[in-house]
Amino acid sequence: MKNINQGSEKFKIREMIEINKTNTRSQYLEKLIPILLLSTAIVSVLTTLGIIFTLLKETIIFFERVSIIEFITAKEWLPFVPSDPSYGILPLISGTLLVTFIAMIVAVPLGLAAAIYMSEYATDKTRRLLKPILEVLAGVPTIVYGFFALTFVTPILKKILPELSIFNALSPGIVIGIMIIPAIASLSEDAMSSVPNSIREGALALGCTKLEVAIKVVLPAALSGIIASFVLAFSRAIGETMIVSVAGGATPVLSLDATQSIQTMTAYIVQVSSGDAGYGTTIYYSIYAVGMTLFLFTLLMNLISQWISKRFREEY
Fold first, then answer.
1. What DSSP designation does 134 have?
2. 242 with 284, same domain?
């Protein structure tokens, strides 16, 4: 009997040893996970700082050769004229904003309408089916969108607007709008779905129709998330590269004519990066100045998005 008890005690001791080993491994793992997560966060921060440092360094070299006043105020962007080059960023900014505003005119109503339908009208089964299909648009490569704009959208638009150039701002603007619809629809639908059902039921009990509930109750309640989605989509459209490079043209002009060829900031960077300028030339450094301008635009849009989210956020 004594031997049996000793055997059972040994078995329990072995179990305790194994449990302690397991606990020790879990403790090591618990200590290791925060270090790994902190390392990934530090890598992200250092990458951002490295990008900013690179842009600033090369941009400063550019402004040692070109006046910052000329860069901001001049109305011509003619870097490839050897005798008298001009580095006024305004034509590139106007082309970028023109395409972006066209994209937003397309994306905002369609994206918001899709969000309202999925949030307020669609059944759970329909929503689970439609949302992934809609988000497939975000996964299409932008170069495909670019050739779609050039070879499909532009010929259709030329039948409506005969004066439309082959390269123009209208076609890439429309296609960029189609591309950013999922961003607006998905984020807006998430914001609207987070509104408590009790608010909807209260409005319905007061005699509101379903459309009135969606437009006058749910939409204002989710306004912060919806506006934030608009701002983020605007930022995404500003930074679009391949669509405007393929279908927008390479003519930097300070104009609001969407039927003519234009050039955006991203398209100019692609043009010079493809080998049109040698290393160390003023044209080479100009892409960093344009890149810094684009970075500031995107940073401003993100700051506005965060401010709107905090300013108009509703807590339930």
1. H
2. yes
